[in-house]
Amino acid sequence: MHNQSVLHKPQAMMFDMDGTLFETETVLLPAYHRTFEQLRSEGLYEGETPPESIILGSLGMLLEDIWARVMPGASRQTVDRANELLLELQLQFMEEGLSRLYPHVEETLETLHAQGVRLFIASNGLEGYVKGITRVHQLDRLLDGVYSAGEYQTETKTELVRLLMEQHGLQSAWMVGDRSSDMEAGKGNGQPVIGCRYADFGDDSELAGADVIITSFEQLLDVFNKAK
Q: Name one Pfam family in it (predicted).
């Protein structure tokens, strides 16, 4: 754990989903390969499935930007079908019990909730995907709100977080995430950012500007307990 500044206890915490709470690759990678198999069978895509590293390195971006990197120049029809298939397959794999939260996520959120911290999700993902995770892993009972770019049609996570804070009357909230979009969302709204460095994808440059960097999720409790 690396601290760069003194923090004050917040009214709320806002969590990114992929790479922060959710071990994305547990359902993303099998769904990714199955999606391209289906796209090829439907005549919407030719060639080999793009390397896993491309989609893993794109997590945290808006879906339009992810597909532009994975399938540059793909038609609208192909992108729309890929979105549909990827969501459907990931939800299927979640229901089959293949998905995992990172270690200690549930008990850490329970402890924060019990101490009166309001908890929110702020994700650039699709509404069905983000809400599917919270439902399958029974996080709904701990959350005050689930915000996704897919539901609110925001162009940046900074805009999504601004909307979340306005709608819930929040003056102070920590942004917790593993991507540069999370750093920007917190700082762009004048809030502290906790950077998460434990996913198997991404790199340290994504966390530039974080007030604190944690290397396991349960360290968030230490940060909260030490805050003024």
A: HAD_2
DSSP string, 69-137: HHSTT--HHHHHHHHHHHHHHHHHHHHTT---BPTTHHHHHHHHHHTT-EEEEEESS-HHHHHHHHHHT
pLDDT tens figures, 16-46 = 999 999 999 999 999 999 999 999 999 999 9
Nearest-angstrom CA–CA distance, 10 and 227? 9
Range of the domain at 40: 25-95
Confidence (pTM):
0.92
Domain count, the chain: 2
Backbone angles phi, psi at 220, to 5 degrees: -60, -35
Q: Are 63 and 185 within 8 A, CB to CB?
A: no
Cα-based angle 138, 142, 144 (whole degrees, multiple of 5) = 120
